[in-house]
Specification:
two-stranded antiparallel sheet, 4 helices, 2 strands
Length: about 110
C-alpha cells in the first residue's frame, strides 16, 4: 500500500468523523429549538422561534448534505452551519432554560437557599 494512499484514507476518515460530530450538534440544536415554546424566545430576548428554527434547520440540512453526499471536509458552509448550531446551544438554549424556570437565580440544586 502506498503511503500517500494511506494518508488519504486517514484524512477522509477524520473528515467524516468531524462531519458526524457536526451533524450531531446540528440535530441537537434543531431538536431542542423545536421543543421550546415561542414565548420563551421573546422572554429570553433571543430573537424569535421562527428565526432560530430556520437557522438551525438550514444548519441541519447543510450538515446532512455534507455527511451523506461524502463532502470533502466541512467547507465554508459546513463551518457556518456548525457555528450557528453552537451559538444556539451555548447562548440561546441556556437563556431559554432560565426563562422557562422563572429566572429565579436563588435556587440551588436541592431547592431554594
Amino acid at each position: 500500500m502506498d503511503g500517500k494512499f494511506l494518508i488519504a484514507i486517514v484524512t477522509n476518515a477524520v473528515y467524516f468523523i468531524l462531519g458526524l460530530v457536526a451533524l450531531a450538534l446540528e440535530v441537537w440544536a434543531f431538536a431542542d429549538c423545536l421543543r421550546h415554546r415561542p414565548t420563551l424566545f421573546v422572554a429570553a430576548s433571543k430573537r424569535t422561534k421562527t428565526f432560530w428554527l430556520a437557522l438551525t434547520g438550514v444548519a441541519f440540512a447543510i450538515g446532512a448534505l455534507t455527511v451523506f453526499t461524502g463532502g470533502s471536509g466541512l467547507g465554508l458552509f459546513g463551518i457556518a452551519a456548525v457555528t450557528a448550531a453552537c451559538v444556539y446551544l451555548a447562548d440561546v438554549r441556556p437563556a431559554l432554560r432560565e426563562a422557562g424556570s422563572g429566572g429565579n437565580r436563588n435556587v440551588g440544586p436541592y431547592g431554594p437557599w
